[in-house]
Write a structure and sequence with these properties.
Layout lengths: L2 E12 L13 E11 L4 E7 L2 H14 L7 H14 L18 H21 L3 H4 L7 E3 L2 E4 L21 H15 L4 E4 L5 H14 L5 E4 L6 H11 L3 E5 L5 H11 L3 E3 L6 H10 L4 E4 L1 H4 L1 H14 L3 E4 L6 H13 L32 E3 L12 H13 L7 H8 L11
Parallel strand pairs: 5-6, 6-7, 7-8, 8-9, 9-10, 10-11
Antiparallel strand pairs: 1-2, 2-3, 4-12
Helix pairs in contact: 1-2, 1-3, 2-3, 5-6, 6-7, 7-8, 11-12
The structure holds D-glucarate and magnesium ion.
The site of magnesium ion has 6 residues, from loops.
Enzyme class: lyase
EC number: 4.2.1.40
Organism: Novosphingobium organovorum
């Protein structure tokens, strides 16, 4: 289907004060919503990062893509490559979202439009998007309870505090897990670590094990622990971990931790493209790759990655950043097409507010820990234009233009710096 018009709309939605290795989430997360309209009037949807450097590329793509056929993903890639080559290369920041790194400009712009192109094609054909990916091998995709240490409220948000409350100790983190599990039925638990004292974080994971003995557990310090700390704590974690996610920086560091502990290591930080995949294989750095179609280069490259993981006997699952329902459905469609999906995927979705979804009908249900695919065409969701306008107005009303969790943390702790690793 020939493309008539493209719209890229930056939005901002509330994000709770979640702690991580870099600092703390800002009061708003940024995304871009992409609409690709065909000559038949059908609109394909996409969702991606909303940080300024990414947004610049997405907006620069609007004109070169008009007139292309939504089938023509090779031409899409070519035009992304040409456009990025013409733009100035942004500086790298302190990203926890690898997708916003300058080296990912092509991969994430391609991905953002690939989803929307596939959605347009599938809607035009009247089939679910997953059918363009070879069809579903499962009807629903499992996600995990993604726990964060957090403050009770933001220092600088005009909104009242979120309903989750503070989570800094064992009792509070168990309560957070209980709410998440009771509300969404998650069966696996991931604890975002690298924020507080590592021994305290391990004590919290042990408290989770006690409270939810059946749930597979993961801990993710986002590479904020030294090799030494990672190995020492593995001694206490070994028996209760399903996998150890990015304990320490670098492919070499991860390989050393794996050699010393024998634990399965997962990553969304050291294997973020096929070149790193190759180097990781040579070093034995990771045993599970957490894919993210937003920066791996789309839904079809995620399938290629899954095949590579199968070939080399690695596990595969999915990483997430703060996102809304269009991304959740794109993740769900691709995960439903991956035969060897080995673990429940990550999602930040429960952290987003019910009145800030951009799709018709509000937030998508997560039931029994899963998101279910329907037989509706494309991604199976429609854009709510009033909500889009509201969240775009919110974007225009704030001054955040790139995610910076360290800058936000300095509002609480002016001396905050980010040595890597911190512990
Ligand atoms: O949202 O604070 C966060 C996470 O730390 C995120 O930025 C990471 O990219 O969720 C991610 C992860 O698994 O590393
Ligand atoms: Mg991670």
């Amino acid at each position: 289907m020939k493309i008539k018009t493209i719209r890229v709309t930056p939005i901002a939605f509330r994000d709770p004060p979640l702690l991580n290795a870099s600092g703390i989430h800002e009061p708003y997360a940024l995304r871009s919503i992409i609409e690709v309209e065909g000559e038949n009037g059908v609109v394909g949807l996409g969702e991606s990062y909303g940080d300024a450097p990414v947004l610049e590329v997405l907006q620069a793509m609007v004109e070169p893509l008009v007139g292309l056929d939504s089938w023509d993903l090779n031409a899409l890639r070519e035009r992304v490559v040409q456009t990025v080559a013409r733009l100035p290369r942004p500086e790298a920041g302190a990203e926890l979202a690898p997708g916003s790194h300058p080296s990912k400009q092509v991969a994430n712009a391609y991905s953002a439009f690939e989803v929307a192109f596939l959605d347009l094609t599938a809607r035009t054909l009247g089939i679910p998007l997953v059918d363009l990916l070879g069809g579903r091998v499962r009807d629903k995709v499992p996600y995990s309870a993604y726990l964060f240490f957090k403050y009770a409220e933001h220092i600088d948000s005009p909104y009242p505090p979120d309903a989750w409350g503070e989570a800094l100790n064992e009792e509070q983190i168990v309560a957070q897990a209980r709410t998440m599990i009771e509300t969404y039925g998650f069966e696996s638990i991931k604890l975002k670590a690298g924020a507080l004292d590592p021994d305290h974080e391990v004590a919290c994971l042990n408290a989770l094990k006690k409270a939810f003995p059946e749930a597979p557990l993961r801990i993710d310090p986002n590479a904020n622990w030294s090799v030494e700390t990672s190995i020492r704590l593995a001694g206490e974690l070994g028996d209760i971990l399903q996998y150890y996610e990015d304990p320490t920086p670098g492919l070499e560091g991860m390989a050393e931790v794996h050699r010393a502990t024998g634990l399965p290591l997962a990553t969304n930080m050291v294997v973020t493209d096929f070149d790193e995949f190759r180097r990781s294989l040579a070093l034995g750095s990771v045993q599970i790759v957490l894919s993210d179609h937003h920066y791996w280069g789309g839904l079809r490259d995620t399938q290629v990655l899954a095949r590579m993981c199968e070939t080399f006997d690695l596990g595969i699952s999915m990483h997430s950043n703060s996102h809304l329902g269009i991304s959740l459905m794109a993740m769900t469609h691709v995960a439903a097409s991956v035969r060897n999906l080995s673990y429940a995927c990550d999602t930040h979705y429960p952290w987003q507010e019910a009145d800030e979804e951009v799709i018709v009908g509000g937030k998508l249900p997560i039931v029994g820990g899963c998101v279910e695919l329907t037989d509706k065409p494309g991604l199976g969701v429609e854009l709510d234009h009033d909500q889009l306008a509201k969240l775009h107005a919110q974007f225009l009303s704030i001054d955040i233009r790139s995610r910076d969790d360290a800058r936000q943390m300095r509002k609480y702790k002016p001396e905050w710096t980010n040595p890597k690793p911190r512990f």
